[in-house]
């Protein structure tokens, strides 16, 4: 938190609302591709003491064993539910979420969505409902055997939020291979609370789609390991770090708002440009075959997909989208230098937002300090990624 307390005075907080659990406390897998170290306890410690994040969305909270683990921790550590939703651990607020896969006859591929519930009781009820409609409620991102609108109605019944996840990635997203032209093919537009940009699009790219102009945009990490937490995040203005306050920020009510989105330059994303499916060589989407290997199948990049869907030139006035290069992307910043930065400044948020270039140079040298400062302002050259391969950062 940059300022503000739970006293009604508006303060600024950092939020990352898309973090997976890799394993339960007993070692059972939840997100199969998630790191074993990505446990509930480790997530909360990393967010509070390493990243400097104030609100954390754990989107595998529907898993019964995770809920059991959470309730034990609440009893053991004295954590409590906010009256306005969310679990206070003292250092960070935990928001209870679930990632679910929707597939019905009107869409052409699986679509991932996020559902958030305000209380443990509400998540318990939702988990029981979900358990009757998925094959294994103890795993992450399971396909639901119900329509998108049925899922939305259930989430709203328990006072939750409904958010399409990583909405533009080529796989398992709303606009990747999901809808042909409009989200109304699958969802009720009046029961969507926000759109997650998802490591592949910025505000101006997303605003090429006119039907999205009514929704706030979220920038979240979709972390599958501890180091990936807060590679994207929001800064929000709230009276307290609670579920209800963040909902007001989505709606720009009573001074609550999203101040800024901090996200990757879309060129750093894994699916920015169209590439050959066989050798990952960048190709024109109009090409019939890859000029390098002759393969005829391509992975369409987000930039090209949005050109197909474009229905608007400009969007509404929005919070700034800041190209925030995560520390792990900085060329030459190894583990020793990273640990030196944390030792001096405490959290990544302080390194990225508060430390001066002189202070950073005293800690890790002038070259790295200059790169970190350039990264803050988006002044680093980017080699675009594609086909599942991240882009690279280079110094101009």
TrEMBL record:
The keyword Mitochondrion is annotated on this UniProt entry: no
CDD domains: PfuEndoQ-like
Matching SUPFAM superfamilies: PHP domain-like, RuvA domain 2-like
Record keywords, A-Z: Endonuclease, Hydrolase, Nuclease
GO MF assignments: endonuclease activity
InterPro entries: Pol/histidinol_Pase-like, RuvA_2-like
Annotated protein name in UniProt: Endonuclease Q family protein
Lineage per the UniProt record: Bacteria, Bacillati, Bacillota, Bacilli, Bacillales
């Amino acid at each position: 938190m940059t300022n503000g307390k739970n006293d009604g005075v508006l303060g600024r907080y950092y939020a990352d609302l898309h973090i997976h659990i890799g394993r339960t406390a007993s070692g059972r897998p939840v997100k199969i591709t998630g790191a074993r170290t990505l446990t509930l306890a480790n997530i909360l410690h990393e967010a509070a003491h390493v990243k400097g994040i104030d609100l954390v969305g754990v989107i595998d909270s529907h898993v019964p064993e995770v809920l059991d683990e959470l309730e034990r921790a609440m009893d053991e550590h004295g954590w409590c539910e906010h009256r306005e939703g969310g679990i206070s651990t003292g250092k960070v607020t935990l928001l209870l979420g679930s990632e679910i896969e929707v597939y019905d006859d009107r869409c052409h591929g699986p679509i991932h969505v996020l559902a958030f519930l305000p209380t443990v009781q509400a998540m318990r009820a939702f988990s029981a409902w979900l358990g009757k409609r998925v094959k294994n409620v103890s795993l992450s991102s399971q396909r639901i055997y119900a329509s998108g609108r049925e899922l939305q109605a259930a989430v709203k019944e328990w006072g939750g939020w409904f958010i399409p996840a990583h909405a533009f990635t080529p796989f398992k997203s709303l606009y990747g291979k999901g809808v042909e032209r409009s989200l109304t093919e699958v969802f009720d537009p009046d029961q969507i609370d926000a759109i997650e940009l998802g490591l592949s699009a910025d505000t101006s790219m997303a605003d090429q789609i006119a039907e999205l102009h009514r929704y706030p945009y979220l920038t979240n990490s979709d972390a599958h390991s501890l180091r990936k937490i807060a590679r994207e995040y929001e800064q929000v203005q709230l009276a307290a770090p609670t579920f209800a306050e963040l909902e007001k920020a989505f709606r720009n009510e009573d001074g609550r708002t999203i101040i800024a989105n901090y996200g990757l330059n879309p060129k750093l994303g894994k699916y920015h440009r169209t590439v050959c499916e066989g050798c990952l060589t960048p190709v024109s989407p109009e090409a019939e075959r890859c000029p390098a290997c002759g393969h005829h199948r391509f992975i369409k990049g987000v930039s090209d997909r949005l050109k197909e869907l474009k229905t608007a030139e400009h969007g509404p006035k929005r919070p700034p989208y800041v190209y925030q290069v995560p520390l792990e992307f900085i060329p030459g910043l190894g583990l020793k230098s990273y640990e030196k930065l944390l030792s001096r400044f405490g959290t990544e948020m302080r390194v990225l937002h508060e430390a001066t270039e002189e202070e950073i140079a005293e800690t890790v040298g002038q070259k790295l300090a200059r790169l970190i400062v350039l990264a803050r302002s988006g002044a680093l050259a980017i080699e675009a990624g594609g086909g599942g391969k991240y882009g690279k950062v280079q110094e101009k």
